[in-house]
Inverse folding.
């Protein structure tokens, strides 16, 4: 690990000022950043500890929405009475991630920004990774690409500086995408909010730019709109082990039912793209339809439209389609107490 300075910030404006210094990084739970520093992937010159900024509350707002401070721990969020009762999809997604010990450290802001688990990104002995070393190419295209993207990737060949088939590994992000959250950030130029769908970036021609966050900006909160899917929600996660493993594919499904028909839907997939893959078209296809295998299968086809696999991950396309049908079916049967 390289030497670095450590600073404990006690106020948001001081944290933002320190965070704007060249090479500085915010430190929240440290469960991703410190690992990446040990691997030599990240080498910040200063760590600005933001754990004492008072951003650890979950608050109900008068318009029915809920504001989650950036420093709320994943375990506290999953168990919070408002989240468990009104947003079980988020609670389920959080509880499916990592381990209890990690969830006790991991924060909302850090989870939003956790970096890809692509082996060629996290292992610096591989020379080609456009994320880690812009312009170096992509070793995953011809490598062991079992956990990689099937949607939204850039593939112009292993040598291209634009190629990237990594995925976003977060479970929380998938639920937040389906719930249509917004992200509140603060920087030297003031505050702004970013719709969830615009926060994470697909690789496009610049795979090393991962989010809409500016380097000096601090995430202060995430806001969830008034709850629609409390009664009918299901987070499905398919993985190699039943605990302590990232998703091969995951599906966050929420339904608002009325008179036997879908009144509104939230549908997002994880493990398939470099951002949580919300399919607004698939959501729309469900509107006014009964909760039936036919309408769910149609939504799955729409959500996976254009999917393309590689040597080791083509199985994900069918797996994701089945996952969508199963998650919607289980959501339509009612949120289960045991999964929240
Ligand atoms: C063994 C293991 C298994 C795991 N399994 C899963 C899993 O199954 N599912 C899953 O979803 N996750 C999993 N994780 C990942 C874990 O959820 C993340 O490491 C965690 O959420 C990151 O949060 P943190 O607070 O520790 O972030 P940190 O490591 O402190 O920070 C991560 C990044 O976010 C930045 N940052 C943090 N907070 C802010 C802020 N408020 N504003 C601006 N920038 C900020 C930091 O500078 C850093 O770049 C696993 C991790 C490990 C180690």
């Amino acid at each position: 690990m390289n030497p670095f300075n450590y600073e404990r910030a006690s106020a948001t404006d001081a944290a933002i000022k320190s965070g704007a210094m060249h090479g500085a990084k915010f430190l929240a739970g440290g469960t991703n950043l410190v690992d990446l520093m040990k691997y030599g992937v990240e080498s910040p010159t200063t760590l600005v500890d933001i754990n004492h900024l008072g951003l650890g509350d979950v608050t109900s707002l008068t318009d029915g929405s809920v504001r989650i401070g950036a420093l709320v721990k994943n375990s506290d969020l999953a168990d919070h009475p408002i989240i468990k009762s009104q947003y079980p999809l988020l609670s389920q997604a959080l509880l499916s991630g990592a381990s209890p010990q990690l969830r006790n450290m991991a924060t909302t802001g850090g989870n939003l920004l956790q970096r890809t688990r692509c082996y060629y990104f996290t292992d610096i002995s591989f020379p080609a990774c456009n994320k880690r070393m812009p312009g170096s190419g992509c070793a995953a295209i011809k490598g062991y690409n079992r956990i990689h993207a099937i949607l939204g990737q850039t593939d112009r060949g292993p040598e291209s500086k634009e190629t990237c088939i990594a995925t976003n590994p977060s479970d929380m992000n998938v639920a937040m995408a389906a719930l249509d959250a917004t992200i509140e950030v603060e920087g030297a130029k003031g505050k702004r909010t970013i719709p969830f769908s615009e926060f994470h970036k697909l690789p496009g021609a610049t795979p090393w730019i991962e989010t809409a966050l500016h380097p000096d900006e601090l995430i202060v909160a995430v806001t969830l709109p008034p709850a629609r899917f409390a009664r009918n929600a299901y987070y499905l996660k398919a993985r190699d082990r039943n605990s302590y493993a990232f998703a091969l594919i995951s599906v966050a499904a929420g339904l608002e039912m009325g008179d036997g028909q879908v009144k509104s839907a939230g549908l997002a997939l994880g493990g398939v793209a470099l951002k949580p893959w919300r399919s607004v078209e698939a959501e729309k296809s469900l509107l006014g339809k009964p909760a039936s295998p036919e309408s769910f299968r149609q939504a799955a086809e729409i959500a996976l439209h254009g999917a393309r696999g590689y040597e080791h991950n083509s199985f994900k396309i069918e797996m994701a389609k089945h996952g969508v049908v199963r998650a919607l079916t289980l959501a339509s049967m009612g949120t289960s107490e045991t999964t929240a």
User: Anything to note?
Assistant: The first strand starts at residue 5 and ends at 8. Residues 25-33, 35, 50, 70, 97-98, 102, 105-107, 109-111, 113-114, 169-172, 218-219, 244, 246 surround flavin-adenine dinucleotide (CB under 6 Å). The CA atoms of residues 45 and 276 lie 30 Å apart. The longest helix spans residues 315-332.
